[in-house]
Amino acid sequence: MKIRYLHTMVRVTDIDESKRFYCDLLGLEEVRRIESEAGKFTNVFLAAPGQPEAQLELTFNWDSDETYGEGRNFGHLAYEVDDVYAMCQKLMDAGVTINRPPRDGRMAFVRSPDGVSIELLNAGGAQEKKEPWASMENTGHW
């Protein structure tokens, strides 16, 4: 019996704000979209460039004012990045809080606009520790 990873789904409250975070800031690309008039939802599937087999599904339920909460039992999404320091700086410059800075030169955590925890791992292992990251404290939780 075979098993194949398809996607991870997260519910979002603002599709445009979520796409700005995941696409414009993290660098994912939209690979397909489903609009369901009958179900009153939009599903947007994203993937890292060149990795269409590992998708993130953003689900937006129309006409809903539901607050989804953090869902800590979900855990987190993890993405490998070329330079964890550069990615964290880009996110900070765009107003994103770095919840767990890359003090070790390898790992950081941020949250999406809907509170989904995102782990960022430096490709190829840890970089040399450097400031301001090495002495930066955690903010909130991840």
Question: Gist?
Answer:
By secondary structure, the chain is an alpha/beta fold. It has two helices and eight strands; from the N terminus they run E-H-E-E-E-E-H-E-E-E.
Q: What helical percentage do the residues reach?
A: 10-25%
Outline, from the CA principal axes?
globular
Order of strands across the main sheet = 1-4-3-2
* Percentage of residues in strands: 25-35%
CA(first)-CA(last) distance? 35 Å
SSE blueprint:
Elements: E1 7-11, H1 15-25, E2 29-36, E3 41-47, E4 55-61, E5 77-81, H2 84-93, E6 98-100, E7 107-111, E8 117-122
Parallel strand pairs: 1-4, 5-8
Antiparallel strand pairs: 2-3, 3-4, 6-7, 7-8
Describe this protein with a few key phrases:
alpha/beta; four-stranded mixed sheet; 8 strands; 15% helix; globular
Characterise this structure.
This protein has helices at 15-25, 84-93, and strands at 7-11, 29-36, 41-47, 55-61, 77-81, 98-100, 107-111, 117-122. By secondary structure, the chain is α/β, with parallel strands linked by helices. The strands form two sheets. The chain has a four-stranded mixed β-sheet with strand order 1-4-3-2, with helices on one face. A four-stranded mixed β-sheet has the order 5-8-7-6, with helices on one face. The longest helix is centred in the first third of the chain and has 11 residues, at 15-25. The radius of gyration is 16 Å and the shape is globular. The protein starts with 6 loop residues before the first strand and ends in a 20-residue tail after the last strand. The mean pLDDT is 90.
